[in-house]
Records
---
Amino acid sequence: MACPSVFQGNRECAMSGQVGHGQVQDPLHDIVAVTDFSDSAHDAVFRAGMLAVTGEGRRLGIVHALRRGMLDALHDLLAREDDEALLREADERARVQLDTLRGELAEALGLRADTELVRGRAARVIDDYARQRDAGLLVLGECNEGFVTELLLGTMSERLLGRTSRALLVVRRIPRLPYQRVLVPVDFSPDSLHALDLLSALAPQAQKVLMFAAEMPYRGLLDEHTAGGGLACLRAAAESTALQRLRALAESHGLSEDACECVVMHGEPGPAVLTCGERVGCDLIAMGKHGRNRLADVMIGSVTRHVMGLSPCDVLVAT
């Protein structure tokens, strides 16, 4: 967890990437940060705060969900019979912690945040709150709900992503600076292009690395003598085509060669994204919720799920 002192005097640093948005609505005009009061959630709230102060007129809401299952567990642990009293106590503690978070943000970033306590199934009531605010981005840390819960229901980020139409930012690192270097895996699907669009608001000053994972179909059936030039020739042709498309994409988004690097990786997309992220030293990976094959993706794309689960850095998922 980053204590408030990490952010003291760093409002100018958070504001260093500030952008104006003219008549076009800022996709991050309203941001919702999810907290379970863990260290990871604390970092997520402050990352959300840093994003809020970098855009003119942005609002931030901090939400905590009181789940019935959690209250039942407390009831059993404490052998309490008065459910209403237990609920009131949990409610009061949560409100005190929310007020503390709001005060820390105001002191460190000069930001006035809204706070909300909701009850029910966390993913549902949090998404309902974000929808009521017309939020463009949900921000959360790595919630530790236990192995059995994650095995049966998936992580909180997966459950939220499975139901929300909002972009989702999963924070894994202490937010000391605006994002500096962002990896953008691209398969030229609408969602992956939307991720690139979002970065103009979320990380306008960051260096962008556009990456395409070139999978060679039927690779096991090919050898160095296949198709006259062999496997190496086919790989080179695929890489050249992908690089041309990436450079055209960068140009269409107004990204100069100094502000953007284009990279082609070979192999399965999930591992390729993580390998590329490590090589280029990114502090954020921005990708789409679905790839080109939405039917195969079902709820959440397999590549997105893989990266969300294993990435050591923050992950932005566009929907």
Note: Residues 144-153, 294-299 have pLDDT under 50 and may be disordered.
---
Amino acid sequence: MLRFDLKVFVVLVTALFLLATESAFAAPAQGAKVAQKATTAPKVRKKKWKPRKLQIATVQFSETFNPRENGKVIRKYIAEAAAKGADAVHFHEGALSGYGKQIASADYDWKALKEEVELVLAAAKEHKVWVIVGSAHRLTSPNKPHNSLYIISSEGKIVGRYDKRYCTNGDLQFYSPGTHFATFEINGVKCSALICFDFRFPELYRELLKQDVRVVFHSFNYAGKKGPAKRPDINHTVLQGHAICNNMWISASNSSTGYMRFPGAFISPDAYVEAKLPMDHDKPNMMINKVNLKKKFRYIWHPSGVQMELDCANGKLNSGTAVEDPRSSDRTSH
């Protein structure tokens, strides 16, 4: 009985020894496997693409023909807009130089204007914001100046200039018309600029559509009139049409010199006036609005219209594929 128990005991001890030995040999292999996992480079998670956004400050104030006075107001709003998170600050036509016939006078202070431009450049750099500001741009005598918008980057450099292409007959007495578009990118958003009477010509907006422009800074000086406007909404209505027919955002800045014809506005591609400034004659005001290229709009025409608009701008004046059929080409039968 004792021998039997010893035999069982020996068997059990041997079995336990073998199990322990197997575990001991298995541990390094398992450890090596773990080590191999640890040395494998971790998977790099792709960053989610962030929608391109742009914060625009639209400003209106009553300018004078004194560039130094105008410059103080402009720099004040550059600082204020930057403090509130704006990426770009948009001013009206002639905001820095003044607008109209006094530009052509012999005693206009061009030296002061040049110095004020430099101060605006410095302010843009200091506050790290883009600035789109209206100013006369002097040409070589005897040529009349351009009626322009300086495109100033957040580095304080003039990266472009738009010269008003469609001057009114009154403008042409004091200004030379421009011949080019100005396009630029802010935060990856392609932008352009137009001035006042340009809004009467849809071909300009159509051309910008072909250039894939998504935001237009449209500066006006439709102000300083003898009485209040009978239809202050008509200008917004025209801009709303440009916005929805060309899939664009529009920042419209106007002078507030009384009487102003309409206040500044911010219009989205669905023709909605997202915000507008108050109709405060001779008073300064500012608003900040956001461009979000991924925004889903409250209302927009059929989505396929966006591509069709581009096709139309490029000369394809129908949707789909045209057919060749005698019953189609014969337009006098039924």
Note: Residues 6-49 have pLDDT under 50 and may be disordered.
---
Amino acid sequence: MNKSLINKKKIEKLVRQILIELGENPDREISFNEETDSIIAKDIQFYSMCEHHMLPFFGKIHIAYVPSGKVFGISKLARLVEKYSRRLQIQERLTKEIADEIMRMGVKGVMVVAEGEHLCMRMRGVKNSGMITTVANRGIVAQTDAREHLLALIYNPRSQAMLKQI
């Protein structure tokens, strides 16, 4: 498509009119500043390669954080998981690196839980298919009450059922 033929002013006017027809105020300020106690992104898939054995490990990562006014788009958290998992890695470091980077983004606290199945464990040696879980807590989430609360939300079947109803 020839970009010089695109009439941006006309598109802006049409999108504005669509927003008005939907009952939205197109002049309102859009902000990702929200007041909330905690945000949890669960079951973010990851795939990585064990740096010790050069074999894959994969699983799910759960990220819970306490914002300090600013919230992140969910895709930002998934991209962060991708950034650190797409290299030779060990699960313990993967968990810590994700937590450390989220803390550098200015949150009050973060918990990262990684659950991984390691083919190095399944294919060689003990040939066991156990899951490995690693946890990194930073900021106010390192406090016992906050940590226990977030873990309960991540793993409690009732909270999972409530989230599915929303």
Note: The mean pLDDT is 85.
---
Amino acid sequence: MGNRVQPDRRQQSDEVTTGTRTDVSVIVPTRDEAENVDELVSRTRDAMVKSKLTWELLFVDDSDDDTPARAMSHAAAGLPVRVMHRAPGDRIGGLSMAVTAGFAHAQGGVLAVMDADLQHPPEVLADLVTAIVYDGADVSVASRYCAGAHADATDGLNGTWRLLVSHGCRWLVWIVRPRLWRVRDPLSGFFAVRRSVLVGTALRPTGYKILLELLARGRWDKVVEVPYHFAARERGTSKSELRQGVIFLRHLVRLVADRGAGSPIKVATTPADQGQVHRHPPGRERRSL
């Protein structure tokens, strides 16, 4: 186990902090999303107040615009917002490494991951984190494909071709990792995980599909899927491109071939992280595995 990582330091650590100071860390990787920051912070705050849990919002920022300044203005206003800005020379590994860097700096017992483009509605956060804290899930996934969800070619998937590719990629995942058959959206970018799921797990993330890496290598028993509407992007520019599809295929090949080797990105825990599981009154329909 490594030394405790102090908040807001620019350098990255090989391990997640061993203690937890807050219930939930919402990790948001950003790349030139200044137009969305204010609305994202406001809606996240409202969702987390609804959850009645303590929280922080951690931006892992690779931007060249004023995204970090926008985010820090909310910290200056007293909200639990932190920014880890990565200089151009430190932006190795793209989005997946940004998320794992967020894991290494997060202080929460539950780690949630969400995009900054508002295609992932922050209001769903309350359901994701309470599924773990109160309902005993190890992983909760905001799903585009379970009962009650909505994702089609006219909304967030932005065209029939992307919709077909999304379905095809899910089938490839189920072939490579049959255990994930009942997870209807193993490629979601919007999810939450109990910190202890990653204890002792060596992650080898690549591309955009950090949830796939987590499900393939993490130690979990129960996944809950929460339906949501995958909305179209309203502002900013999509980062999806053909190159990401190639990286995804390489990721699958690695999962087939790799039987244990991993990067030094690890998660440590303490007994406090294993907190009690409480029953929560039913809310939005959830799909348990």
Note: The radius of gyration is 17 Å.
